[in-house]
Amino acid sequence: MAKENKVRIYNRLFFKLYLNYAVMLLVTAVLICLIFIRLYEENTMNNHKIQAENDAESFSKMLTEDFIKTGKYDEFLVFYNRLVKFNGMDIWTFSNPYALTPMDERMATNSYEELEESEYEDLVNRAFMGEKAYRKDYDNIYEKQMSIVAAPIHDTGGNVVGAVLLLSYVEGQKDIVNDSLKLIVFSSVTALAISFIIVIIFATELSLPISKMRVTALELAAGNYNSKTGIKREDEIGDLAKTVDILSEKLLENEIQRKNMEQMRLDFFSNVSHELRTPITVLRAYTETLVDGVVQDKDTLAQYYERMLAECKSMERLVGDLLLLSKMQNPDFAIEKEPVNLIQVFDDIIRSAGAIAQKKNINIEVNKDCPVLMMLGDYDRLRQMFMVILDNAIKFSDENKTIHINLIKKDKIIVSIRDEGIGIHPEDLQHIFDKFYKSSLGKNSGGTGLGLAISRQIAQRHGGKIEVSSVQGEGSTFTFTFPLLEMEF
Ligand code: ADP
């Protein structure tokens, strides 16, 4: 499976995150620009208005104080010319025709008549009424955006004797925007450029672990269960990565288990084939010899038949053991349990094994602390289980030895079978319950290596366990532990 990212660039998480962040930043920047320009423009205009009104008022006061009060009307023109030259704005003064004593005509730069019907008439009229008036407009005469302020001129008695009109060029909206926009755009672009770089870091931080997890998931899908995300974070992404890592560990464990099972299965087949091969080979050889008619001697023939029968029995035992083991291992196979007296089971097996034990002059000693020891179980299976152990104890003991059987009832039922036989090598000890395991001592020619595996299965199916301890040369002890039957008998 391809590890490289085949998702189209515009569908990639990084790209989407980056785009989201970038668009968000861009919108914010544009909004800030627009709001700023609007406020800046309003503020500038307002300042301009205040400034113009103040100027008009100061000028009007100056006229009252310096000229009207003193009567120095002739000096006004000189002052006016100098002022206009300096200020660069147009100042018009009008005498109020409606006043009782209008302002001296020498101080009026323009006559009210020529103002009539003009666009400034309204402003000047409002000044004549004692108000300040302001207007910002495109002026046809100047062909520019102009701010015009009109203010009343008072005589010493406070009567409105005239009006002053201040005309000044004002930067239009576009000019203000143009001036400030350059600055704002420049700073916004710089801020955006820096933010876009920071956004790359953010987007990478979020998208990189996800693409790492994707690669890990692909690796897992391809069967590489050693693959880990290697992400350590304290957030939800970290949690997810941890989960992916746990998943990979679990998959690895399962894979190991699967391989072990597979190996066990293969071993099992090869063991079964191996165990069957010997008797089949022997049977075939004997049968061929018999078919050839070479052997005529009665005693030899009897020997042949006996050997063939023994091999058939051994095969029968092997197949029987295998069937039983597979039955025991099948969780669907239920053991029919009934109350069983273990003392009775042991009487039974000692009777059966007695003949072989006697042959080797082996004494079987039973120690019991009560005449009846009940447990729930399948009589035949329990008998078979203990029989395997007793058989082995006899098989692996030398002549004239004793086998000690202890039946103890405490909070559990404990059954131990101790022999004084050859013992088990420590290396073999952990394997003796495995299927087909036979120690290399060679004293076990007739065994299939299935006995202890069957015993253990039966013990487990009865809710119990089997343990072994052994000292080589001194003997072995097999100990069973079963839960006590709750009922009293
Ligand atoms: P088998 O049916 O061949 O006896 P088991 O599963 O009963 O196989 O036993 C497995 C191996 O455990 C035997 O081959 C033997 O080496 C060892 N073993 C079992 N019981 C004893 C014992 N009492 N003393 C010494 N070795 C034992």
The total beta strand count reads 11
Q: Which CATH architecture of the largest domain would you pick?
A: 2-Layer Sandwich
User: Which regions have little confidence, pLDDT < 50, spanning 5+ residues?
Assistant: none
Shape: rod-shaped
Q: Quaternary state, please?
A: single chain
Distance linking N and C termini: 67 Å
What is the residue-mean pLDDT, rounded to a whole number?
A: 88
User: Structural class, from secondary structure content?
Assistant: alpha+beta
Small molecules bound = adenosine-5'-diphosphate
Task: Give Rg in angstroms.
Answer: 58 Å
The CATH homologous superfamily of the largest domain corresponds to PAS domain
Please report which band the strand proportion falls in: under 5%, 5-15%, 15-25%, 25-35%, 35-45% or over 45%. 15-25%
Which fold name fills CATH's third level, the topology of the largest domain?
A: Beta-Lactamase
CATH class placement of the largest domain: Alpha Beta
- Tell me the strand order in the biggest sheet: 6-8-9-11-10
Order of helices and strands: HHEHHEEEHHHEHEEHEEHHEE
What is the percent of helical residues? 40-55%
Total tally of structural domains: 3
Major sheet details = 5 strands, mixed
Structure at a glance:
With 489 residues, this protein is of the alpha+beta class. It is built from eleven helices and eleven strands. The protein has helices spanning 13-68, 76-87, 112-115, 121-128, 173-221, 236-292, 298-329, 342-359, 379-395, 426-429, 451-461, and strands at residues 90-95, 133-139, 144-154, 160-169, 338-341, 363-368, 374-377, 402-409, 412-418, 465-471, 475-483.
